[in-house]
Amino acid sequence: MLNQSRPITMAVLAMGGEGGGVLADWCIDIAEHSGYWAQTTSVPGVAQRTGATIYYLEFFADDQSNKEPILSTMPTPGEVDIVIASELMEAGRAVFRGFVTPETTTFIASTNRVYSMAEKTAMGDGRVSSEELLSACEAAAKKFISGDFAEVADKSGTVISASLFGALAGSGALPFSKDQFTSAIERSGVGVKNSLIAFEKSFEIAQNSLKPKPNPVSISIGAKPADAPTANLGLTPAQELEILNNPNGAVGSKLQDLASRIKSDYPSAVTLMTISGIKRTADYQDAAYAKVYLDRLEAVKECDSVFGDGTYRTLNEVARYTALWMTYEDTIRVADLKTRRTRFNRVNDEARVGDNQIMQVREFLHPMAEEIADTLPTFLGGWLIKTKPVTNFINKLTINGMRLHTTSLHGYFLLYILARLKFIRRRSLRFNLEQERIDQWLTKILAVMPENYDLAYEIAESANVIKGYGDTHKNGWRNFTSLMSEVDKLRESKDSNAATRISKLRSAALSDETGEKLRALL
Amino acid sequence: MAERSFAAEVEKLRVGAGAEFAGEGILAVTKALLQSGVSYVGGYQGAPISHLMDVLGDAHEILEELGIHFENSASEATAAAMLAASVHYPLRGAVTFKSTVGTNVASDALANLSSGGVTGGALIIVGEDYGEGSSIMQERSHAFAMKSQIWLMDPRPNLTAIVDSVDLGFRLSEASNTPVMLELRLRSCHIHGKFIAKDNVRPSFTLKDAIENPRQDPARVVLPPASFAHEQEKLNVRWPAAVKFIKDNKINEVINDGAQDFGIILQGGLYNTVIRALQLLGLSDVYGNSKIPLYILNVTYPIIDDEVIEFAKSKRAVLLVEEGQPDYIEQNLHAVLRRADVPTKLFGKEMLPPAGEYTPAHVIKGITEFIKKYGPQLLDQNALPAVVRPSGDKPTSLETRIAPEKVHGRPPSFCTGCPERPIFTALKLAERETGKHHISADIGCHLFSILPPFNIGATTMGYGLGSAGASAFQSIETDKQVISFMGDGGFWHNGLTSGIGNAVFNQSDGLTVIVDNAYSAATGGQDILSSQADNELRSTKHPIEAAVRGIGVKWVKTITNTYKVSEMRETFKSALTGNVKGPKIIVAQSECTLNRMRREKPAMAKKIKEGKRVVKERFGIDPDTCTGDHSCIRINGCPSLTIAPNPDPMRKDPVATILNTCVGCGLCGEAAHAAVLCPSFYRTEVITNPSIWDKAKLSIRSAVIGFLQNGIERRLVGIQPNA
């Protein structure tokens, strides 16, 4: 009869430079100090340069037979006892590759995301849903331990290998005591104190996630309209409910009238969005501009109540994009936002300015003749754009960009004065152009809604392709006009799939910068 | 100096007989070389054998004590040619490189070496970069062993076995006057394990002895008629000698023969995987006590005909587990059995995948199929491992739980702060004006340019061959030029002559960008001729520009700060649009950040501790002016430049953000300027231990700016509810 004892198997999925090797070394160290045979292998190669990589370990209790066990150098799908993933998509990869199985695997995953290049380079939102990844991980594991171990490490002043090591200890999946784990960290002798802090916190996270979960108690805080979540503004349900019940409470004294109008005239489905909209437009210009905003929505609201499906989803998106469009980023806006105290505090926090430290900020600005023309009164701006020698002269001056020292007096003054130019904005070239464009867009939505509600919704959503600055903005506008002329064609031909077609074109417009994919589809 | 310091490992190399040596596979080989009385070692760095070179580089004291010469060869060809020292003298020598790419480069020298044969043991340690984690074309070193008649050892992935084969390899080489190739798979190189050490040995016949007593023998030189005699000698003398040595020393192993009327033949390197497969099928224990007879080829070339016939003839069938293609061993075994009229069935690639790495899953499937055919009673259908369970049975274990498109590939890319990234940012911007060019890439970190977000580079023909790979693109019918890239490593390896010299001689038009980051960076940051660091063992600081001018190039521009994107872009434009004919060279020079940080981080920490004023820069992005279009990422691709949920409740798309890992290289700001992107980028300078002047300025600024900010806040009253 063969000896049936098998080694304990463990795979670590990490990215180059995260300390996966350190984690593996600690595990080997404990094992060898505890009378185990231990083996680790890895295939780092060029993956050391930020690529995905796997460390594979096996442990086997020495049975004093003086015989060396034969340990595998590669994981076998379905036979891995412990899987550790340093990031959520890597966790997904572990599941995809079959290393995590419900009969065998204790699965420790850090829920932080390190976005892939494809997710990062999309013109819009290219992210893979974290919920989907998490639920796949949960379904695949025998025991699932998750937590933001990257954050734990960061807060403890160390790297993720330390917190994952703590979670591994807390999981109880290896036959070693907590002391044996911490001794391994101590023996390594590098950054011991911080590593131990991260270890302790993660140990606790792992132990807590293994406790049987109490049945969820539903906390009811009153009725919430079924269609409200369409706003999706990142607020907690309680916050949302508070605004829905009392929109006036969410705004200051200058916007009370508008808030009352929203409460009495507008469906609750769009309350959150419109309240945000009036605040944004008022912050951008003034309360009068917020009124212009709400007036613009009026006709769409009426139309949606007649031709809509009761969800007011078109109105909601119109409320979103009208506000964003009306608050287009001109130099005045940029200067305004950059000079605020809230911004200074945010930058300070981000740079982690500590005691006996001073922070300075330098902006990388690149004003072009067109942007300067944009903020000038229409006639002057128009003249500037048309007068090539002048634009060339300005562009030559600014070609290398400006590095403005915002935390110095002269730098701050410059931005401060620029921000104070709000009063000339209403007469500026760009302001009038954008108002005209917004109204054309709204007119089209209103015209289309009675004949094809879904298409009207798509037109509203299409405003999202206009974004960025300079050339990016130009390309966005070009894509938008292509979409709109396609809308016209589809209306003429009374195409029943018009909305689906525009939706597809919309994603194409957001998939690359040059509009190549969009052109290909057109 | 290499990326990693091996000071601790070097001490391990001193341990004596009976002591336990625990460490990485490639370190075990290093120790084994010292134990075997080696006289000289050379090689060219590259995964997975870089560490062997790096450790020996750090171990020069030990090497001097033992009288060993170690050098960082200029190329694998140089390394292989070094083995010429073992032709006439009883000197043991070893060289190492990445295979098959290094073996390709070395093959001229290897062919000459093996034709004439050797007196002293000549060992070629090849890091077989095959399968998962490999960065090269998937080929086998086996072909080189066969074509030049070099014996090929493929030891079990186990430190004791690897160490033993170094010693056996030298002895086999000497017994048969033939060089021996020791094949170490990727994982074997990085495996952690232990073995019992022996004392280091100083060679009895030293380099000094050889240098002072030169020998010459035309019979050992490849020139007719000796070359014809070599071929005969290979077959009639050296081959039988090798066979005898391998049999006498029982290098190949037979386990549990006679237990079944079928068996498995396997490469030594696959032993652990096969044992694991058998164990999961209930046919072996963890110590390798297999119920199935095994014949383990620790030498995969030559095949020992007698041993094969002996193992096969008593069996109905044998399964050969041979990784990679072509199936050289399988073909060889068929010939052996056919010639000996042995009717035993031989299975191989028809039960196992014809190509690709032999993972446990593949091996389990193959062996299961084989056993089902010849010994089905041995398998417990209720205890099969997950990968061979019939579908529908325990469906929960290996079903698909996640759609493949949800798990994006994560290939390696330029590190945070990498000085090579801005070169490609600049080229991408230059191409917006000059139009797209054909771009020939090379081997090195810079090859990551072929991936998103840059998508730059059409082909790569090998290390240092970037420029050569563009040499066909010469036409008098167009003014458009092609661009080629080359790293500093590849440049010194051969690119200076194969690319630049070639272009000068053929009067080729075109631009070559030489990426000079002061190290052979992709292989682990080893020094090369143009490195900027002082190195007491090597001569550095030989400028690439001087070499290029020396070989006859007239148009050379050295950019000493690649992060200056606008300057890089303008240089590209001038090279691509100017009327200058002939080869044009841009030397794009900035130090590898990985290595720079390794040096600067501790220095900065020390200064802070001493209370000195230190400024640390990093970049940031204002989320409220970022519109979420990610243009900045598409021309940059830095790991620290990523996306985050939009804090603006009205915007749906994620904003760009910069992580705390930012090293403040400056590319973000430069790119935002050069591409006229957006005003969201800012740089923070955190001053630790500020001076009195810093503090005075701060108090005035805070007072004035604070006053103005109060005004801003007053004007915004009435929009947000009162707190």
Automatic annotation (TrEMBL), chain A:
Annotated keywords: Oxidoreductase
Occurrences of domain DUF6537 (ranges): 277-485
One protein family per Pfam: DUF6537
Keyword Metal-binding: no
SUPFAM superfamilies for this protein: Pyruvate-ferredoxin oxidoreductase, PFOR, domain III (SSF53323)
InterPro entries documented for this protein: DUF6537, IorB_Oxidoreductase, Pyrv/ketoisovalerate_OxRed_cat, Pyrv_flavodox_OxRed_cen
GO molecular function, one term: oxidoreductase activity, acting on the aldehyde or oxo group of donors
Domain Pyruvate/ketoisovalerate oxidoreductase catalytic: residue ranges: 16-191
Protein name: Unannotated protein
Organism: freshwater metagenome
Upper taxonomic lineage: unclassified sequences, metagenomes, ecological metagenomes
